[in-house]
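Team,

Forwarding the record for the chain on the shared tracking sheet. I've put the sequence and predicted structure together so nobody has to dig through attachments.
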Amino acid sequence: MNFIKALLLSIYLAFKEILRNRGRFLLVALVIALITLLVLFISALGEGLANSNREYLANLDADALVFAKRSV
């Protein structure tokens, strides 16, 4: 029973703190959202480059590909 009371009190205090400092919490949430968007954007760009490279090699009109042991 004490655990439930403590949990409810902590939830109440958390919401009260968020309502008092709306601006700060909004800015933190905005920064997290922008970082998430940036990570998703960079991931999509990398995926597109990988698909493009794979398609290029698949459509290459060659009998064999030779890779150099050491390139200058």
